[in-house]
Specification:
A hairpin with a 2-residue loop joins strand 15 (186-189) and strand 16 (192-194). 22% of the residues lie in helices and 32% in strands. It has 262 residues and is α+β, with helices and mostly antiparallel strands. The protein folds into 2 domains: 3-47 and 65-80 and 225-259, no CATH class; 85-221, no CATH class. A 4-stranded antiparallel beta sheet has the order 8-7-14-17, with no helix packed on it. Strands 11-12-13 form a 3-stranded antiparallel beta sheet, with no helix packed on it. Strands 1-4 form a two-stranded antiparallel sheet. Keywords: Bacterial flagellum, Cell projection, Cilium, Flagellum. Residues 217-261 form the Flagellar basal-body/hook protein C-terminal domain. Belongs to the flagella basal body rod proteins family. This is Flagellar hook protein FlgE.
């Protein structure tokens, strides 16, 4: 059987995966805090036809002769670049300008991390995300805004202050986390990320300290998906898929010609 057919199949499968990544990026173009994915290819193992030889006294060396056997998935990266800030003028919409992630309590234990800051208050006044998970403070506890507070504000350092009967009281400080390798974080769905062995341990900080960015209230960070770039990548992926399909059909025609030799 022709090697080109199997190379074409591997290329076809991997270009389909590339289009899957692009499709997910485009689907989330308006998802606040979404970080786009990037697919990269890697060549597969090559078949050794002839090894390299070293130069001798009367003859020069020769290069290795190898036939490639197709492509495979290199990486599917999550690019944690900054998205554009969109003003919302809503007090509990928060965005991070710079590095860092909001800390979210995982109901099953541990923590989640997110760049999506469309928070709200529950019936008890606790600050929660859109799934009802508690937003954690710099001390690891929840942040509660009293029901009787007539007003509240969130500073760039994450400090939450509330006005109770004309007295300004600090309700807590929203905590941020940074990682040595943010691209090592694992997507957990719902705009949440989880820590992995390759992301490094979370550095729990206050906003504006230790390399963490500052918090902007009344703003949301939009996705970092560039539609024009995604469309170009989609065209490239589509043409690559078509070319690999042509390799398969051409290999089939060659095999048909061989069958007709009899």
């Amino acid at each position: 059987m022709l090697r080109s057919m199997y190379s074409g199949i591997s290329g076809l499968q991997n270009h389909q995966t590339k289009l899957d990544v692009i499709g997910n990026n485009i689907a989330n173009v308006n998802t606040a805090g979404f970080k786009k994915g990037r697919f990269t290819f890697q060549d597969m193992i090559s078949q050794q036809v002839q090894g390299a030889t070293e130069p001798g006294a009367d003859q020069g060396g020769t290069n290795p002769v190898q036939v490639g056997l197709g492509s495979q998935t290199g990486t599917i990266d999550t690019l944690h670049t900054q998205g554009a800030m969109q003003p919302t003028n809503r007090e509990l919409d928060l965005a991070i300008g710079g590095d860092g992630y909001f800390r979210i309590q995982n109901p099953e234990g541990g923590e989640f991390y997110t760049r999506t800051g469309n928070f709200s208050r529950d019936e008890a006044g606790d600050l929660v995300n859109e799934d009802g998970y508690y937003v954690l403070g710099a001390d690891g506890g929840t942040i509660t805004i009293a029901e009787e507070a007539s007003d509240f504000s969130i500073g760039s350092d994450g400090t939450v202050t509330e006005d109770i009967d004309g007295e300004v009281i600090e309700a807590g400080t929203i905590g941020l986390a940074t990682f040595a390798n943010p691209e090592g974080l694992e997507q957990a769905g719902g705009n949440l990320y989880g820590e992995t062995v390759n992301s490094g341990d979370a550095n729990n900080l206050e906003a504006g300290t230790g390399g963490a960015g500052e918090i902007a209230a009344g703003m949301l960070e939009m996705s970092n998906v560039d539609l024009s770039e995604e469309f170009v990548e989609m065209i490239s992926g589509q043409r690559g898929l078509q070319a690999n399909t042509r390799i398969i059909t051409t290999s089939d025609e060659v095999l048909q010609e061989i069958m007709n030799l009899r």
